[in-house]
Amino acid sequence: MKILLVDPFHGAAGDMIIGSLLDLGADEGLVRAAMRSVVGEPAFEHVDRAGIRAVRVRTHAKAAHRSLAEVLARLDESVAPKEAREMARRVFLRLHRAEESIHGAGAHFHEVGADDAVADIVGACTALLSLGVDGVAVLPVALGRGFATGAHGTFPIPAPATLAVLRDSDLQTSLGAEEQELCTPTGAALLAEFSTLKAADIGPAKISAIGYGAGTKDPHHTPNVLRTLLLTVDTAVSHDHVDLLETNVDDVTGEVLAYTLSRLMEEGARDASALPLVMKKGRNGYLVRVICRPERTDHLAAVMARELGTLGIRCFSTVHRFTIERTVEPVTVTIRGRSYTVDVKCGWFDGKISSFKAEFEQARACARDLDLPLREVSGIVEDAARQIFRERGVLDE
After folding, report:
1. Between the CA of residue 57 and those of 45, 162, 188, 217, what are the distances in Å?
2. Domain 325-392: what homologous superfamily?
3. Bridge partner list, 47
């Protein structure tokens, strides 16, 4: 397995995250195209930060004040991969919740709604996904202290929005002695979204790559960089704890149910489903079940109550979930004389691929392009994948 370990010993910002991941081996072409599509041509360069060579990222964007809807519309115009756009959307929703908890409903993004923040978030999500890691762990985030000036005037460091984001995450923090802002709201939201496991759960690992992303300032007494490490571990990281939320409903339409499941996924649920039930007095109903990280439980329970009108939600706290190693393998096929590359999601057990499936959105795009049934395109891709895995000797048969 490949694990990304983020070490924000001197804080984190969006540009530092992108730079560090590029230095680690992220796809520069994909990242550049994604950022260019929302702002303009970014600049990547190597600089020195207190003796450490690091990648500096510049977006050349101007400040702006936008609503959430305006920011998301700009995101939809990006050419970033679909999964990166979805991840970026979740990052913006984290920031929006943080802003509203401080300024009230209808808050504008101010600094985090500026073009450079949009580019940073889209670029960072694209960079992470291009690395194809199986998990991300984040070491304690240095925050800094003191005061700074922003759109609302002078504010204390850490910024209120940064603290609000971190409060709703499972990240650990440290203030440190630095009299400056080390972690920005954008940096905090990205790391909170990226984090999928605890560093203590990784176990023995080999360091296969190291990346450094440069901050804007260049103090001489300490390297203003974000460090990331790409680790290789021999066995799957299977320690995962989640909360399970459930409620029974018998008075909602199918449209409301579908909308609610979609909303729950957008708000950070790991999975959301509805199972048909026969309830008291023979009424037809549904069991709505949500799997989420413990820090998202209260928020998602509120979404369920608001959207479904339910009066009670059961919470099964800290459920241990067994997870197997997962990878994404690109498979190239030729259909009707045209070449397509489709990602195949693979599940591994004991060093063998025990299950695999063509990525739905990519297979659907091919099916529409070729005017073929989706199941036929998926079957062609999965047959090709099966042959490749057999030739590699990794298929569990």
Report:
1. 7, 21, 18, 12
2. mk0293 like domain (3.10.20.300)
3. 54
340 touches 332 (CB < 8 A): yes
pLDDT tens for 67-77 read 788 888 889 98
**For range 93-122, the mean pLDDT:** 77
Domain extents in the chain: 2-232, 241-320, 325-392
| Rounded Cα gap, residues 368 and 150, in angstroms | 48
Is 42 within 8 Å of 119 (Cβ atoms)? yes
Distance in angstroms (rounded) separating the CA atoms of residues 380 and 382: 6
Place of tokens 């409060």: 167
Residue 90's nearest CA partner among 244, 259, 270, 289 is 270
Instruction: Report whether pLDDT(188) > 80.
Output: yes
What is the C-alpha separation between 315 and 307, in angstroms, rounded? 17
The encoded tokens of residue 28 equal 């520069």
Across the strands, what pairs with 356? 346
Structure tokens at 44: 């990547």
pTM, entire model: 0.64
Instruction: Tell me the pLDDT band of 238, cut-offs 50, 70 and 90.
Output: low
- Chain length of the chain: 397
Q: How confident is the model at residue 321 (pLDDT cuts 50, 70, 90)?
A: low
Does the domain at 241-320 match CATH 3.30.70.1380? Answer given as yes
**Tens digits of per-residue pLDDT, 239-279?**
567 889 999 999 899 999 999 999 999 999 999 999 999 98
What is the spatial distance between Cα 19 and Cα 15, in angstroms, rounded to a whole number?
6
Q: Note the pLDDT of residue 278.
A: 92
Q: Of 317, 320, 172, whose CA–CA distance to 240 is shortest?
A: 320
